[in-house]
Amino acid sequence: MRAVVVEQGRAPALLDRPEPEPHDGEVLVEVLWSGVNYKDGLALRGDPGVARIDPLVPGIDVVGRVVSGHGVAVDAGDLVVVNGAGLGETRPGGYAERVVVPGDALVALPEAVSPRRAAAVGTAGFTAMLSVLRLERDVAPGDGEIVVTGAAGGVGSVAVMLLARLGYSVTASTGRLETESDYLRSLGATSVVDRAELAAEGRPLQRARWAGAIDSVGSSTLASLLAQTSWGGVVTACGLAQGSDLPTTVLPFILRGVTLAGVNSVDAPPALRRTAWHRLATDLDLDLLDSATAEVDLADVVDAGRRVLAGETRGRTVVRVGA
User: I want to staple 201 with a disulfide (CB 3.0 to 4.6 A). Which of 64, 220, 290, 311 is the partner?
Assistant: First the structure.
């Protein structure tokens, strides 16, 4: 089978590899589609924080057809989707024609979602949905403005679409105002702000601007969001594009009751995975998602990963593997 292989000391390459075999609790999947996430870009360049095994087949998303399984209640031919679960980090991922996946991470592909669209959702969209699920527990559409950082990226784009369709008023933050403002408004953002407004370090408690936030940036941007969130608001943290540090104080938490909620898509339990995918199938405008999706072949995935890291893409990029 063909697979993109990252190996220390060598450039990533599309190679012929032996077909894997599933063990107990695992499923062999024929990969139809995968996606290109920020984490995939890091894996493709051999970043040790993501590429935990050597050699590694990247690809944290798998959408495909079950070939066989051991001790898992699936049938050959079932269409399934897997996001995270160690794929493309601690075990071979979706940039291969066949892959072995953990059975407890499988989700049956909703009938309303095609395999290509499921890949367009990918881990980015799955993470956005997890963030929305957490946000809506405490913040209603009428409570105020929701800000989404990194809004032109994969997580941000899907988050804007979801929030807007659910009735929230959304401010999109981006570093590419000139090129992305119209795009973000087409996804449902009511306003667009320059990321520089949020990226600089400021006072630990500032004028309240947001009822909530979905942040994929981290560092001083996340600190600014916390400082500007109104009483009882929720900020979800799901990325660290700016950095993993958090230069803040306890003031937003003890004076305004702000909640900082971490979102982890890798280890999400099965029930939460199913809930998120059910909501994605019903709450996401799939036609709008199509307009924000680009497509590459498996042979072009290395360049696609580089472009994601360089901030040269918008929305989602899917990888045609075996479709």
Answer: 220
User: pLDDT above 70 covers what percent of the chain?
Assistant: 100
- Work out the pLDDT band at 225, boundaries 50, 70, 90: very high
Cα dihedral 102, 108, 113, 115 in deg (nearest 10): 50
Range(s) of the domain holding residue 88: 2-109+292-320
Q: Supply the pTM of this predicted model.
A: 0.94
Q: How distant, in Å, are the alpha carbons of 39, 154, 198, 222 from that of 147?
A: 23, 15, 11, 11
pLDDT tens per residue across span 278-298: 999 999 999 999 999 999 999
Question: Are the C-beta atoms of 87 and 94 separated by less than 8 Å?
Answer: yes
Output the average pLDDT for the chain: 96
For position 177, which CATH number holds? Answer: 3.40.50.720
Q: Where are the beta strands (DSSP E) in the chain?
A: 2-5, 13-16, 26-35, 61-69, 79-83, 98-102, 107-108, 145-148, 169-174, 191-194, 210-215, 229-237, 259-262, 293-297, 316-320
| 306 and 199 assigned to the same domain | no
The pLDDT score that the predictor gives to residue 287 is: 97
Contact between 31 and 37 (Cβ < 8 Å): no
CB-side neighbour CA atoms (13 Å) of 101: 35
Q: Is residue 25 part of a domain?
A: yes
The string of DSSP letters for 180-212 reads HHHHHHHHT-SEEEETHHHHS---SS----EEE
**pLDDT value at position 70?**
85
CA-CA distance, 16 to 72, in Å (whole number)? Answer: 28
Closest to 127 measured CA to CA, from 263, 236, 270, 262 = 263
Within 8 A by CB and 6+ apart from 26, the residues are 69, 70, 72, 100, 101, 102, 103
Cα radius of gyration (the chain): 19
